[in-house]
Amino acid sequence: MNTRADPALLAHATQTIEVGSKSFAAAARLFDPGVRRSVLMLYAWCRHCDDVVDGQELGFNTRQVDDAAAQLAMLYELTRRAYAGEAMPDPAFAAFQEVALRHRIDPRFAFDHLAGFGMDVDEAHYETIDDLLRYCYHVAGVVGLMMASIMGVHDEATLDHACDLGLAFQLTNIARDIVEDAGAGRCYLPAQWLREAGIPADEIAQPRHRPALARLAARLVDHAEPYYASAGAGIAALPLRSAWAIATARNVYRQIGIEVKKRGARAWDERVGTSKAAKLRLLARGGISALARRWRKAPARPAGLWQRPGASSPSTPPRHAAPAAGA
Questions:
Q1: How far is 242 from 237, CA to CA, in rounded Å?
Q2: What class does CATH assign to 125-305?
Q3: In contact, 218 and 259? CB cutoff 8 Å
Q4: Which end of the chain is more exposed for a tag (fewer CB within 10 A), N or C?
């Protein structure tokens, strides 16, 4: 494998994040150059895998995917090859290979992430909030674990906090995108909650359900709060610039949830985001928080939070994994 840093890979990754996630792109500028490169390239791989399965380009321009299961199996196979050190012509996988091997990212994390896309392919049903959190773990919690690895963190306690940030991010995203997801034929709200609110799963996008839907979105935002708190407690374990970047990202995404809750039934009239001025305020607050936490003892992770699969427990074999060579 060629380990020489390729500037073209960084350019590709930078363009990907600037189009795909303006909120995280702003926070990512705070990392030191080496960490920033790896973070951006990890994001490019995650975005690429999501787009391949969904038939999108940088999260937009949805097209029909003829065989999403086959596309996902290809992603599994390319990820295996990346870990094996094979040449990766695709820039997203070349970027991932550099990051995964340089920072010793546990292959379990990468394959657990792909399993989250498999849940979408299978049109998984989420009956309870714990079922939804399992999905959040796969699509976002393990991204936190991989990010922590890039920042040189491998101890289990801090990894738990990193995973919690991913869970909080995804709960916020789901609350913000409920109506948009429904328009694409997807529902991530727990079916139990929908029944309690009297909203049929096939009527989520109908305007007459907006007041009840707003209460469910607020419930998701409230459910994210202890995970945001846990993530904040883990920031002290990160290098200072990384702590600043993560504290800022935490503040920005949390503010999106607060705004969704504040808007109530009008939360989906337009996509909720944060202004440049708000981002600057949250950036400053993130810096203060990162500094302050260095002189405070981090509290223990609150009891009762959903627990990620243990590092020693085997992952469930992915349904859509490509067969092993020679099988």
A1: 10
A2: mainly alpha
A3: no
A4: C
Q: Model-level pTM?
A: 0.88
| 257 and 169 Cβ atoms separated by less than 8 Å | no
| CATH 1.10.600.10 domain span(s) along the chain | 125-305
Q: Which residues contact 43 (CB under 8 A, 6 or more apart)?
A: 13, 16, 17, 20, 21, 24, 28
DSSP-derived 3-state class of residue 135 = helix
